[in-house]
Amino acid sequence: MSFIEKSWYKKPGLLSVLLLPLSVLFWLISTLRALFYKLNILKAFKAHVPVIVVGNISVGGNGKTPFVIWLAEYLQQQGLKVAVISRGYGGQSDSYPLLVTEQTTTTQAGDEPVLIKRRLGCVVMVGPDRQASIKNLEQHDIDVIISDDGMQHYKMARDIECCIVDSERQFGNGLLMPAGPLRETKARLKSVDLVIENGGNAQSRYDLASSPFRTVSNSELANSVQEKGHAVSAIGNPKRFEISLEQQGINLLSTHHFRDHYAYQANDFSDFADDAVFMTEKDAVKCFSFAKPNWYYLPVDAKPTAAVIEKLNLLLKQKGILNGL
């Protein structure tokens, strides 16, 4: 995390004041852009099937991916064929849109799309041009599209918006980029269909439930796990992950934080010798090719409250995505 990013989660100081003029400019440009789409001065495109956006109003990992996976599985259980589109941050493909397959690497598609594909097995399309990704999905038999991020991509019409909020970090210092972490002001939450906190005590939230450890090298359940090792993560809120490891009885010898979506190399782990290494599933998809037998990842699953499911069911019925819920 850079010096500027660290300042976002402290009380506003001199750096925040110096960056405020840029934040005002950012607000002006983003507000005008949103207004132009609202007034149809700029034209949005409409997908051939309903689109559900899972995003946030702040920069950094807020826990969208676990909810995307839960939502996709939930819709699949209702008999719908689901596709997921993603920007594929951190990936570099020779051509876009990119259909993610079992052979697609995180270097090509980014970590989250590969993780989603492995978890769900559904159609996953990656590309910076979401309209092109959705156009490509017309070749597939699908009923609904989930957009992993894209709340601020007003060019893409959407049927439902779900905004994920990190219950611990919330909105940082409450300022817009670059003085703060916000992409839009908190007033934007009033227009969102469903605001869901990641953790915390809010009625509309989801909690993360840990599953048994798996071995990074082959994704199989770990028969036995060493009780101490190093925690390595490249996620938005590493502290939450480290606490979950300690709750699993792991004695952490050290903790190492990399920027979100960091592309790991084998030499990043050279200081650990033969010690055990613990990471998230999002990290693990980037490390299996060079992982040692005593490297483990901790899968987590989103568990929404009854209030979230009730609100979601109502929205799905109102939008005609599901009937009879």
TrEMBL record:
Its EC number is 2.7.1.130. Pathway: Glycolipid biosynthesis; lipid IV(A) biosynthesis; lipid IV(A) from (3R)-3-hydroxytetradecanoyl-[acyl-carrier-protein] and UDP-N-acetyl-alpha-D-glucosamine: step 6/6. Transmembrane segments: none annotated. It comes from the Bacteria. Keywords: ATP-binding, Kinase, Lipid A biosynthesis, Lipid biosynthesis, Lipid metabolism, Nucleotide-binding, Transferase. The keyword Kinase applies. ATP binds at S58, V59, G60, G61, N62, G63, K64, T65. GO terms for molecular function: lipid-A 4'-kinase activity. It catalyses: a lipid A disaccharide + ATP = a lipid IVA + ADP + H(+). It is an enzyme of class 2 (transferase). Coiled coil: none annotated. PANTHER family: TETRAACYLDISACCHARIDE 4'-KINASE, TETRAACYLDISACCHARIDE 4'-KINASE, MITOCHONDRIAL-RELATED. NCBIfam families: lpxK. Transfers the gamma-phosphate of ATP to the 4'-position of a tetraacyldisaccharide 1-phosphate intermediate (termed DS-1-P) to form tetraacyldisaccharide 1,4'-bis-phosphate (lipid IVA). HAMAP family: LpxK. Belongs to the LpxK family. This is Tetraacyldisaccharide 4'-kinase. It comes from Pseudoalteromonas lipolytica. The gene is lpxK.
